[in-house]
Design goal:
7-stranded mixed sheet; globular; alpha/beta
Length: 375
Amino acid sequence: MIYLDNAATTKPDSECVKAAEKYILSEFYNPSALYAEGYNLQLELKESRRKILSLIADENNFSLTFTSSGTEADNHAIFCGGKRGNVVTTLGEHSAIYSAVTELKQRGTEVRFAELNSDGSVNIESLLSLIDEKTSIVSIIHVNNETGAVNDIAAISAAVKAKNKNALFHSDGVQAFGKIAFKLSKDIDLYSISAHKIGGIKGCGALIKRKSLALKPFIYGGGQEQGLRSGTENVFGIKCFEFAAIKRYSVLNECLEKVKKLNKDMRSRLDKSLFSFISVENASPYILSVAANGVRGETILHEADDAGLIIGTGSACSSNKKNRYSRIILSCGIDENTADGVLRISFSPENTLSEIEKATEILNRIVKNKKDIMA
């Protein structure tokens, strides 16, 4: 089986899982307990928090709160940061943001959506026109989860603060963390990350915040995570996250170059008479969205699965929605006929060029056969 749906989830790194195994089999204690074994685990969590944070942020200016997922981190930022005035985001956000701000709107908060460029990046002019003195939070995805478009969040956050210095700036960094090189700038207040996109396990994420920002909890209870996220910590998941993040960042540039080659090879091998490209060449190489005009993406997905290839048709977190067409793809200005044939191919450094060759053979064959039947 060839797996090319890594933007949905990655295979857990076996070395990291093995290294963290003791935290679920022998050192299984509650880190909030007063006995030595629990206290020692609390120290372990503190170290995990420090190590992950240090990969992308200045520890003197930022702190990290572990969550159950990137979705929870996004929701924490939106519901605890957007309680007054208006909230500004984009039409290209992951459903964890889009659904959260939609709920805020139903509760009476004004929500404003910036337009997208054709590649899925935010239209800066549209974004800045929506920000005023009443804007409480602005949320801009770092790497678009369907097109791979990269938003320059350092420049965007600076422009946002120039218009309203009191507006909070949040970014969903789930598809950027562990994949592209960056450091959080002083104008970024909140940033969400997730473990299972980089070889960690599902059920663990984090919200990074500027230390000087006073943020209320999203989940209440025993006061874990410095009072910001109650609930007994998932020590096994957190340690897997730590090990996977450190491992990925130790070879970040090598992984990026390898994935660029995989992406380039896929682009060159796909039949241009059958496929059009939605992802631009300067997008994150980890994501390649294409469209098979005239053939439904879902049909291709199932036939590819039968042939031993796993791909996606968009965000896996939106796959249970009734809407036939991707909200994000349509917001890029793509027509419904093209949107109906969209496929999302997403890579891992573990993929090989031989897998790409086989995958393109499968996709070209499926679409050509469908076209021949319809002709």
